[in-house]
Amino acid sequence: MVNTEDLGARVFGARIRARRKYNDLTLNELAVRAGISRAALSKIERGEQDTSVSNAMGLSRALGVDVGELLAPPEVVITSSAAIPAHSAYGRGTLRRDLPAPQENMEVVHYKLDPHCETASFAAHRSGSRETFFVLAGTIEIVTIDRRTTLRVGDCAQAPGDVPHQLSNPGNEPAELMLIIV
């Protein structure tokens, strides 16, 4: 069994390191901004040293995040398959599952398309939205007003989401993809 104090220090340290790297800060730069020594920060990031509330507050300010975000216990949210309904109203031979989104203003969608099927045309999403398509199986075409873009298993494409489009499976095998809309 993992000691919860050790786990807390490791999670806190990992979050500090991840946020520091995300902000493109060196260990020295963050230590200076937070008002702690580089050696102490290094030990905190490795989960080898607990820190004071004062240091935690200094680190959160220096990183531009709420201290609660750095201290919260890790949370894994599980949604059973049965709780994620499948919809077939998106075209003959298509199946869509809207997955729980990890954050606001984000959609995560799983599509299955039978061979030689296509979805109904999707209306444009909000202005400035972006879509990421990742093909899990088969071949998918992204069809817009002026082009057809073919993606094969393992391919990933990003495109504006604020134009009408649809998905097509031109292949002889079922196709699957994940679609993320932000």
From TrEMBL:
<dbReference type="InterPro" id="IPR014710">
    <property type="entry name" value="RmlC-like_jellyroll"/>
</dbReference>
<dbReference type="GO" id="GO:0003677">
    <property type="term" value="F:DNA binding"/>
</dbReference>
<dbReference type="InterPro" id="IPR050807">
    <property type="entry name" value="TransReg_Diox_bact_type"/>
</dbReference>
<protein>
    <submittedName>
        <fullName>Transcriptional regulator</fullName>
    </submittedName>
</protein>
<dbReference type="InterPro" id="IPR001387">
    <property type="entry name" value="Cro/C1-type_HTH"/>
</dbReference>
<dbReference type="GO" id="GO:0003700">
    <property type="term" value="F:DNA-binding transcription factor activity"/>
</dbReference>
<feature type="domain" description="HTH cro/C1-type">
    <location>
        <begin position="16"/>
        <end position="70"/>
    </location>
</feature>
<dbReference type="InterPro" id="IPR013096">
    <property type="entry name" value="Cupin_2"/>
</dbReference>
<dbReference type="Pfam" id="PF01381">
    <property type="entry name" value="HTH_3"/>
</dbReference>
<dbReference type="InterPro" id="IPR011051">
    <property type="entry name" value="RmlC_Cupin_sf"/>
</dbReference>
<keyword id="KW-0238">DNA-binding</keyword>
<dbReference type="GO" id="GO:0005829">
    <property type="term" value="C:cytosol"/>
</dbReference>
<dbReference type="Pfam" id="PF07883">
    <property type="entry name" value="Cupin_2"/>
</dbReference>
<dbReference type="InterPro" id="IPR010982">
    <property type="entry name" value="Lambda_DNA-bd_dom_sf"/>
</dbReference>
